[in-house]
């Protein structure tokens, strides 16, 4: 297949590009800068210049491909309304372009906010509907196109997609530990996160593109529940820092913006995903990656 990948030079997107090319697929990667274009060309993939605000570039990319993998997101923590607007507009134009083609449309989504009190499953419907909801309700919007001949597949990602070079949540936790001189967890540290290695996540997306049925929700989850205390202890060991409990009232001051996420349980099962795709994660665990030094550099 020839896949159009948005976010093709991002943390997960770049691994997806590598997975696709290694397994014989062609890639058309969206690039918003000269640096991104050069990185993609160095991998021998085709490049389309544009970004999430250039809807014509998204339409063109989708029209020229056999599959669309939408990974890009503004992640503007200071202006979440703009992030939500952009995400919804992007999903809308990509889906509209694919109407009647039965081509796969992989849409990235978070696991957070789906359910409370238990791990989320693939059968759980996202409560986010409409522009003013999380990510502009893009997950449900994309699924609305299934009856219109779009093979929509939702890929929900663990809060930690880890590995060497990660710039996600755990990177910020490690940075906070270096700044504060202590690796912290909040309260008793019993809050839990799901996790998946970056390589396993990329393989999941490739398998989803190749064979997931229309309307599927896939969970990129290798470890269902890693305690925040275990994460903090691993960071402490890797950085040679003490480990301590942080009062919930001091979380923002200690951790910065990531503190609000560190207080939340974000877990999910991937049982149905594994059965549907014959996907078996093989990469290191989150703690193993931390202890191996994946987060030791500033």
Give a description of the structure.
The protein is an alpha/beta fold and 298 residues long. The protein folds into two domains: 2-159 and 196-221, NAD(P)-binding Rossmann-like Domain (Rossmann fold); 163-195 and 224-268 and 282-291, UDP-galactose 4-epimerase, domain 1 (Alpha-Beta Complex). It is built from twelve helices and twelve strands. It has helices spanning 11-22, 34-42, 55-63, 80-98, 138-143, 169-180, 198-211, 228-239, 251-255, 259-262, 271-277, 286-291, and strands at 2-6, 26-31, 46-49, 67-70, 104-110, 151-157, 160-162, 183-186, 192-197, 216-220, 223-227, 243-246. It has a seven-stranded parallel beta sheet with strand order 3-2-1-4-5-6-10, with helices on both faces. Helix 1 (11-22) packs across helix 7 (198-211) and helix 6 (169-180) crosses helix 8 (228-239). The longest helix has 19 residues, at 80-98. The model has no long low-confidence stretch (mean pLDDT 95).
Which helices and strands occur, and which strands form pairs?
Elements: E1 2-6, H1 11-22, E2 26-31, H2 34-42, E3 46-49, H3 55-63, E4 67-70, H4 80-98, E5 104-110, H5 138-143, E6 151-157, E7 160-162, H6 169-180, E8 183-186, E9 192-197, H7 198-211, E10 216-220, E11 223-227, H8 228-239, E12 243-246, H9 251-255, H10 259-262, H11 271-277, H12 286-291
Parallel strand pairs: 1-2, 1-4, 2-3, 4-5, 5-6, 6-10, 7-9, 8-12
Antiparallel strand pairs: 9-11
Helix pairs in contact: 1-7, 3-4, 6-8
């Amino acid at each position: 297949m020839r896949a159009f990948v948005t976010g093709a030079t991002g943390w997960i997107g770049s691994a997806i590009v590598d997975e696709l090319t290694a397994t014989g697929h062609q890639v058309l990667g969206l690039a918003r800068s000269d640096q991104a274009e050069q990185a993609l060309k160095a991998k021998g993939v085709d490049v389309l210049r544009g970004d999430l605000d250039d809807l014509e570039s998204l339409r063109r990319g989708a029209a020229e491909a056999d599959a669309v993998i939408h990974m890009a997101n503004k992640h503007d923590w200071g202006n979440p309304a703009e992030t939500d607007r952009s995400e919804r507009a992007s999903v809308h134009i990509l889906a509209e372009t694919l109407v009647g083609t039965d081509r796969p449309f992989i849409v990235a989504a978070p696991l957070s906010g789906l359910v409370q009190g238990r791990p989320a499953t693939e059968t759980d419907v996202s409560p986010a509907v409409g522009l003013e909801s999380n990510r502009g309700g893009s997950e449900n919007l994309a699924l609305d196109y299934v009856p219109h001949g779009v093979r929509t597949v939702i890929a929900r990602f663990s809060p930690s997609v880890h590995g060497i070079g990660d710039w996600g949540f755990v990177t910020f936790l490690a940075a906070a530990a270096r700044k504060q001189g202590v690796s912290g967890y909040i309260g008793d540290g019993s809050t839990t996160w799901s996790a998946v290695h970056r390589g396993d996540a990329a393989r999941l997306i490739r398998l989803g593109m190749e064979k997931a049925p229309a309307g599927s929700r896939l969970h990129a989850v290798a470890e269902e529940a890693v305690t925040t205390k275990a994460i903090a202890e691993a960071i402490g060991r890797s950085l040679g820092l003490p480990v301590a409990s942080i009062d919930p009232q001091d979380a923002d001051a200690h951790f910065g913006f990531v503190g609000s996420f560190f207080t939340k349980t974000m877990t999910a099962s991937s049982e149905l995903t594994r059965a549907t795709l014959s996907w078996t994660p093989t990469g290191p665990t989150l703690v193993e990656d931390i202890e191996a030094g994946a987060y030791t550099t500033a």
